[in-house]
Design goal:
The chain is mainly α. The protein contains ten helices and no strands. InterPro entries: Homeodomain-like_sf, HTH-type_TetR-like_transc_reg, HTH_TetR.
Length: about 190
Amino acid sequence: MTEPPGRRERKKAATRQKIADTALRLFLERGYDAVGIRDVAAESDVAVTTVFSHFASKEALVFERDQDFEQRLTRAVTDRPPHEPLIPALHREVQALVRHCTAEGSAPVRRMIEGSPALRKYEESMNLRHAQALAAALAADPHLSRSATACRATARFTIDAYALACQADDPGATVDEVFRMIEAAWEATAS
């Protein structure tokens, strides 16, 4: 059983969320390139060092749920019941993540990301990191018995399913279509 976070952890989490919310509001109001870390710190009523203690870069402020995203994907592999097939578990998790990225009010953030070369580059490197973490989780599962190549390809396709769906007219149908291909490829790699 996990212990609830203590007062200090709750304060840190609240400060982090306040900084992220403030940054996103400023980026959307003024434009990503027009807002600096000092602006975010001042508006959040924290020191610049506090911003950097919570976020490694300005780009990370936009993708503040980055670690949660990665953990959710890897947990879809590691925390699923032993009898549950892998691909449906990943499919469900990606559908849930896509619902978040396509929720009401998310379009301005997506446009901001698409309009910024720095944010697109950061998102690309973040997606590669997520794919590596997911591939490692797949390869570590002794019940899956697939090659390292199959694990890496499945992880990349899973991340790509999310990315494609977040930009699609019908996100749910896009995830379903890509996961039909992922499942067929996964089954084809069974030894």
